[in-house]
Every structure is written in structure tokens, then in C-alpha cells.
Amino acid sequence: MIYLYLSFSLSLLSPSVILTYVNCKKVRWATRVQDLLALTKVFALIVIIVVGLCHLFRGTTQNYEDPMEGTTTYPALLATTFYHTFYAYDGWDSLNDVMEELKDPIRNMPRAIAISVTCVIVIYTLTNVAYFAVLPKDLMLASPAVAVTFGNLTLGVMAWTIPVFVACSISGALNGYTITYSRLLFVSARRGHLPRLLSLVQIENNTPVTSLMFLTFMSMWMFVTSDVRVLINYMAFAGNLMHVVCISSFFWFRVKHPDWPRPIKFGSASHSSYNRPRVLPVRHAVVKQSPEVGKCGPRHPRHWFILCLLIPRPQRTSPKSPQRHGSIF
């Protein structure tokens, strides 16, 4: 059993190590990999959508009869539903962490977020429509991987491509997290919230190597459990907690620092409406899933970010530019 667990952990860790190396070598390599994997995922979803819509046009609509049957309004289950929904749409905020590397961020960042979120909503909604057009509810709930089950029922000899596309999708998400969270740690260290070692930059490729390596080391701790659902629930908790803290800080900054320049402005009503649905899942996780949260808590970069917000920043006496070191590859 221990050998099976080790092989499972190594198979999950290998893509992380490879993507970390790519990010350490060149930022352009990382962005090219991200673009390729994102296009692969979108292509797979378009295939699923087309196949599902073909089934609908043929009159396969029995799965849409009485769609609310078996649903519940129990708050704990609703919180879990929000968990998985927020997790599916997570990633839109990653652009904020690489704002320094954007060209004209004040103009391009709102456009990029608006376009990407709109596309994701449309694609994911149509994908769910396609799933329900082919898979009955009981089969979908019993399936360990809905996309794989969908492919086995509809794609015939090409069903093997779905697991490949799923692997590309996961690798793309992992690469995106590697890019953004390494910058989060890098900036926190540069501002004095974390050890200065994490603010070092590789002098030839201008990449935050130490932050990337530290991030990979921290991700190894996540393999303390082999239950994927536990990891998903915890990732959703970490994301919700960070968003609640960040959005709540807007109200504090507007009262404490009303004169700060704000080139991108949103009303307080939008902040409140965004924050309210996330409070319930966070409370549910703390009350009902505290062992899982406590087990994985110190291992996630988002919690390090929240910790940085709580630690007073020391006075800087050194230059503002990050320290640099020579090539280590």
C-alpha cells in the first residue's frame, strides 16, 4: 500500500517540478506553456459542448425532466455547493498578482478579467448543459470523473483523449498557480513581510527562483492526503478565505486612506455582494471541516499571504530594488 501511495504522490509531483523548472528558466516559456494548455482545455470543452448539443437536437431531453428533484436547501450542503462552484471559477484573480509584468495594466487588466470571466461562464454553462444531455443524474453523481464517463459514452475509440485533455487542464491550472503565487511570495518578501531570501531574482532570466522553489517545497506537503476531494475542499476554503479578507480590506482602506490613488474603482455595493456568498462557505469549513483545514493550513501560499497582512511591515533601510544572484542552472 505504501508503494502505491508513493507512486501516486510522485506522479502528481512530477508536473509540479517540471513546471517549476520552466518558470525558473524563462517567464516567456511559462506564458507559452500556459497559453498552449489553456487552448487545449478550451478545445476539449468545445468538443464536449458540440457532442452534447447534438444529443439535445436529436431529442434527448429526458434528463431535463424535473431538474430540481432531489435538491435541498440545507445550509451546510449549500455551502459545499458554493465551495465547488467558486473553485471551478477560481483563477480570475491571478492576473492581479502579475500586475507589475503587464503592459498598461490600468487599461488591460479590467478588460482581460471581463473577457475571460465572460468566456468561462459561457463555456462552463454550455459544458454542464452538454453533460446533462448525455448523462443521467445518478450516473453523474456516481462517476469519479464526469468528463471521462462522458467520453466513454459518446466518443467511442477517441475516448482516450479525454483523460489527456483533463491532464492538460490540471497542468494549466498548476502552471497558473505557480506563476501567480510565486509573485505573491516574492512581493511579500520584498516588502519585508517574509524572509528576504524569497525576494531574490535570478540575474540572467529575471525570475523569482527562490520563491518558486519554496512554493514547490510547500506543495509537497499537500500530499499528506491522497483524497482529492479533501484537497479540493481545502483549496476552495483557502481561496474563499483570502477573497473575504482582501475584499473586506477595501472598506478599511477607504476609511483609513481615502486619498490613495484608485485608478480602477468599484462601488461598495459590488464588494458587499461579492463577499456575502463567500462568508458562509468559510464559516462552514471552520466549523464542520476544522481537522482538514488545520492539517493543510500552513501549507498553502494564500494563508501565508493572509499572515503577511497581519504582520506589521518593518521599516526598510535597504534599496527598493530586489536582490539578485547568479545562475544556479
TrEMBL record:
Membrane topology summary: Multi-pass membrane protein
Protein's UniProt name: Y+L amino acid transporter 2
Top-level taxon in the UniProt lineage: Eukaryota
One protein family per Pfam: AA_permease_2
Listed GO MF terms: L-amino acid transmembrane transporter activity
Bilayer-spanning residue ranges: 36-57, 112-133, 153-186, 207-224, 230-253
Cellular component terms (Gene Ontology): membrane
Sorted UniProt keywords: Membrane, Transmembrane, Transmembrane helix
Gene expressing this chain: slc7a6_8
Gene3D superfamilies linked: Amino acid/polyamine transporter I (1.20.1740.10)
Entries under PANTHER family matching the protein: AMINO ACID TRANSPORTER, AMINO ACID TRANSPORTER PROTEIN JHI-21
Main subcellular localisation: membrane
Protein location: Membrane
Entry-linked InterPro entries: AA/rel_permease1 (IPR002293), AminoAcid_Transporter (IPR050598)
